[in-house]
Amino acid sequence: MSTIKQTLNVLWLQSGGCGGCSMSLLCADTTDFHGHLRAAGIELLWHPSLSLASGSELLTLLQDIVDGRLRLDALCLEGAMLRGPGGTGRFHLLAGTGQPMIDWVRRLAPLARDVLAIGSCAAWGGVSAGGGNPTDACGLQYDDDRVGGLLGFDFRARSGLPVINVAGCPTHPDWVVSTLMGLAQGKLGSDDLDALGRPRSYADQLVHHGCTRNEYYEFKASATRPSDLGCMMEHLGCKGTQVHADCNIRLWNGEGSCTRGGYACIACTEPGFQEPGHAFLTTPKVAGIPIGLPTDMPKAWFVALASLSKSATPKRVKLNATSDHLVVKPAVRKTRLS
Question: How far apart are CA 188 and CA 207, in angstroms?
């Protein structure tokens, strides 16, 4: 006898941010976004940009959740939690309620089966917490690279999971959709999250994996300008060998990534990326060696391998690395036909 599985009821709220994660979500690989979610057993109760309901309808929905008349399975928060001024949260009031958004989040989070931080602002504070952070912005469970955030590090949703940090600036649409699908199918547990609460489906990879510039990286043939074809790690600030994301495997819009577009990876899925301590497109060095090295390679090994690699760099790779187009094409291997 078959049983009808409950849909995953999802509420999406926005706090301090640019709305970029919602814009990215619209690039999900489907011609029918709502139908795509429904087919996966996901019911989008409300989203500020994708739902027709507004005003009193939303307030009624929120009250139904608080009073227990409507089940909340996944609470998705986009944007940083704005605690200012002075911890009151009154920099961001939920329209029509006169109550700070942070108070609504504190009220709704314990009622949700799972809580998701959508994007790096919601996860760590992100760009919203940059500079002097006048709004006292933070993430749901992290304050940049420090534990705590709005809900506190000990917070657990009804499922027993901590906040699921779908980090990125913006986050990839498939990271969001696949995470929600995993929850809808009951197939996302604590073992599926990394040490920072990010879904391992994308966080177990490095941006470096699948990068089209990997041949240049292997020979340490480096770009000197953003338009060059070479590796951007040595001079242009690329952190792809250190950053957890599958941007060059699960391509954006099916065909692109930052590095494929000629822009260095700035570590947008990691805490503190917004304040690197240097210009994004520069690589800080000590004695000519980049400070940021591959996550799992000892410094001495890197220096030794870099020296050997540069001495063995083919002329083709060296010339192409500092050009915006292929100057020297790969040689055609001689056969009996050529």
Answer: 23
Instruction: Read off the amino acid at residue 2.
Output: S
- First CA to last CA across the chain, in angstroms? 68
59-112 confidence digits (pLDDT tens): 999 999 999 999 999 999 999 999 999 999 999 999 999 999 999 999 999 999
Helix axes of 56-66 and 101-108: crossing angle, nearest 10 degrees = 40
Q: pTM value?
A: 0.93
- If you search the block for the tokens 């994007």, which residue do you land on? 119
For 136, other C-beta atoms within 10 Å of its C-beta total: 21
- For residues 132 and 279, state if they share a domain: no
Give, in order, the Cα–Cα distances in Å from 192 to each of 38, 161, 195, 271.
23, 10, 10, 19
Same domain, 227 and 189: no
Which domain does 157 fall in, by range?
8-201
Cβ neighbours for 338, distance < 8 A, ≥ 6 positions apart: 332
Q: Is 5 left (phi over 0), alpha (psi -120 to 50) or beta?
A: beta
Angstrom CA distances, 78 to 14, 190, 295, stand at 5, 22, 29
